[in-house]
Amino acid sequence: MPTDILPLILALVLGYLCGSVPFGLILTGAAGLGDIRSIGSGNIGATNVLRTGNKTLAAATLVLDALKAAVAILVARYFWGDDAAMLAAVGAFFGHCFPVWLGFKGGKGVAVMIGSLLSLSWPVGLIFCAVWLLIGFTRKISSLAALTAAATAPIFTYVFNDNIWLTFTVAALALLLFYQHRENISRLIKGTEPTIGGKKAA
Questions:
Q1: Are 156 and 124 in contact (CB under 8 A)?
Q2: Sign of the CA dihedral with 67 first, then 59, 28, and 107 last
Q3: Backbone angles phi, psi at 19, to 5 degrees
Q4: For 148-180, how does the pLDDT look when each residue is reduced to its tens digit (9 = 90+)?
Q5: Of 48, 86, 137, 145, which has the most beta carbons under 10 Å away?
């Protein structure tokens, strides 16, 4: 195996392993709230953790899910460079959404994308958060906020960075996030998507 390929593979694996840590499941289980997969939408992300009624756990899940991506990216960049960092971001996203330990059923990737963007290009990460907050507070629909922020992320990445591969990487993450929200998109079209804090699955 060429030595220049090995670091990229290691970065991808590192990202996947970090991303696959199910903090939402771990935190809710430790708090005695049962299996988060039996609540709401059944996924392990912060939005579903919020349905337990515990805002602190939901916030902790959001932060830790973002951090697990950031750690993988920063470690990969430190040891193997920027190309490896981008692959670590992709790996973390796949690990979070399709963790092998949970039968490949994980979260939807919003927090992981936040952590990835802040680590790869912090201005884009901040803009992503700002767009999410704007849509989230005005429309009260978490999925719409995430989809809007994800759709704009590749554009801002291109504007703020002279790196076409980074733009492609962010576009790939955005497409994956859209795929993970395909049921939400269907409900948005039908007008049946619940608002933030609603009891229906999202």
A1: yes
A2: negative
A3: -65, -25
A4: 999 999 999 999 999 999 999 999 999 999 999
A5: 86
